[in-house]
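Journal club side-thread
Mid-discussion, someone asked how the predicted structure for our own chain would compare to the paper's figures. Pasting it here so we can look after the session.
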Amino acid sequence: MSKKNVADALNVFYELKAAFSNAYWETNDINQKDRFFAMKAMLQDELDELHKLSVQDHNYPYEPINPIVQQLNDKLRELLPTLNQVVYRPQTLNHLTELIPDACELFAS
């Protein structure tokens, strides 16, 4: 397994952020809305830090910058087994099912 670089992390995070937005708008449950909004906000904090890097730095190995990503990692790991119970639209479900392991792999590095 090769170490993911900053560009790889940005791609995963942009996709994950879009999937969180979709899940937020697709659910009617206020608790799930809160959950997806909170995870999206945590992810945005990491993206804000990554945006401070120069484009030339995008080939360097990714390392989490903001300590909040550990909380996001934990929340994603909790969400994954119950994903099909809280996300109803198949496209969003499939997208999150693919992205969550990729994001957790990045956070664990």
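Post-session note: Residues 6-26 form the longest helix (21 residues).
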